[in-house]
Design goal:
Helix 3 runs antiparallel to helix 4 and helix 6 runs parallel beside helix 7. Strand 19 and strand 20 form a beta hairpin. The strands form six sheets. Strands 1-22-21-20-19 form a five-stranded antiparallel sheet, with no helix packed on it. Strands 2-25-24-23 form a four-stranded antiparallel sheet, with no helix packed on it. It has a four-stranded antiparallel sheet with strand order 3-4-5-6, with no helix packed on it. It has about 425 residues and is of the alpha+beta class.
Length: about 425
């Protein structure tokens, strides 16, 4: 595997600091097996790691190599396709571990898939740049009754209103007790704004005693007063929320794979995905609100029935992958995903079957755009998709300090659906 097996060790160490000792031991055993050319054991251990942590950049690549070294060409090609769709910059074609299949037609097709990832597709257009450079917007909302655009701020711990033509921002809601603001959603009557927040190092005035705290706020839109604050014990990151037509609120937790529900001003655990999910992100519902769709950053999208909480994970068609999905929207029997955990970044619209539990096709909205770094949550307003294209997550250092020289003013994009 040349340098790929070892160059990703640093990533592995960083990610696995909070993981079990057993997993790290299995990884080391797999490396030892590879070095000793015990490829059968190497394959067995990499399969085990892949089942524990799917779409891990190191595990997935090592699995492809292990399959190739054990003469399993068909399975190797399938995993290499995942590798390419996760990160098209990895030069697996120069790795001697794939030498046995390098001249096969299937391998050449994977190389063609890799080449196709360099293509730029542009269907969204820039609407405006906001004048607050270090705002770091994440969530977005439009209030039609007052014709008002709102954006949440991770960095500045506030909500701003902004002019969609000039980009000039004004503080709409600030509070000393407010954490980093992720998602903001109005209720069906446009009376209340629901706000998902969490204390993270990237926000200003972060301190260690705040780590793991999160809250959902119910704010009166007219008075801009907090009506109620909802918190749960433990370490949480409330990253997104969905407000139903009957004003029930569903909240995704990115730190612990649980979906919470707020009903009659009480917040409770609605469903736990702890045995099957890893990092919950965008959350949405279909038109009649009979199904809830939840994105997991490492696994894909689960569709859950509100009637009985039965669920299934969607299978992604060839040429697409479930890793790295952040924002998620439902539009006319399609799902629109913002996929920022892959290279290149892409926005994809998936067609669903009549039962809305199977993907039947897809189209790429945006792909490999130089001005996208990195889009996050999105909303639909008047048949148009809206999102900020350049949330500056990559411009923070390990202590949560933002390097202003590495960022541009927030850019709001729109795409007609």
């Amino acid at each position: 595997m040349k340098n790929y097996l070892y160059s990703l060790v640093l990533i592995f160490i960083t990610i696995t600091l909070a993981q079990s000792q057993t997993q790290k031991e299995v990884y080391q055993q797999s490396i030892n097996a590879y070095k000793s050319k015990d490829y059968a054991t190497f394959l067995k251990l990499t399969q085990q790691l892949d089942s524990i942590r799917p779409f891990h950049p190191t595990y997935t690549y090592n699995l492809a190599a292990a399959l190739a070294l054990n003469g399993k060409e068909k399975e190797t090609i399938t995993v290499l396709q995942k590798v390419v769709l996760m990160n098209h910059t990895i030069a697996f074609e120069t790795d001697d571990d794939f030498k046995s299949i390098a001249n096969s037609s299937a391998f050449q097709q994977v190389l063609a898939l890799k080449k196709s990832q360099e293509q730029t597709i542009s269907n969204s257009n820039k609407l405006v740049s906001l004048n607050e450079k270090e705002l770091h917007p994440e969530g977005l909302e439009f209030l039609p009754k007052s014709n008002l655009w709102l954006a949440s701020s991770i960095r500045k711990r506030k909500i701003v209103s902004f002019d969609s033509k000039s980009g000039i921002c004004s503080d709409w809601f600030t509070d000393d007790q407010l954490f980093a603001v992720f998602s903001i959603k109005k209720d069906s009557n446009e009376r209340f704004l629901w706000v998902a927040t969490a204390a993270i190092p990237e926000m200003e005035r972060f301190s260690a005693d705040l780590d793991g705290k999160a809250a959902v706020l119910k704010i009166d839109i007219k008075t801009k007063k907090v009506i109620q604050r909802f918190e749960m014990e433990g370490n949480h990151v409330f990253g997104d929320l969905y407000v139903t037509k009957t004003n029930e609120v569903y909240v995704s937790d990115s730190n612990k794979p649980i979906i919470y529900k707020i009903q009659n001003n009480v917040m409770t655990e609605w469903i736990s995905l702890e045995n099957e999910a890893y990092n919950l992100q965008g959350i949405t519902m279909n038109t009649d609100e009979s199904k809830l769709f939840i994105a997991d950053y490492l696994k894909g999208i689960s569709v859950i029935s509100l009637k009985d909480k039965s669920r299934q994970w969607l299978t992604f068609p060839d040429g697409t992958i479930g890793k790295g999905i952040d924002g998620l929207c439902f539009y006319k029997s399609t799902l629109i995903e913002v996929q920022n955990g892959v290279k290149p970044i892409r926005l994809v619209q998936f067609n669903l079957n009549e039962e809305q539990n199977t993907i039947t096709g897809f189209r790429i909205i945006d792909h490999n755009r130089a001005d996208f770094n990195e889009p996050a949550l999105a909303i639909i307003v008047k048949d148009k998709l809206h999102f900020f294209a350049n949330s500056p997550w990559q411009a923070y250092d390990k202590e949560g300090n933002l390097d202003g020289s590495k960022i541009e003013n927030p850019m709001l994009f729109e795409s007609k659906l």
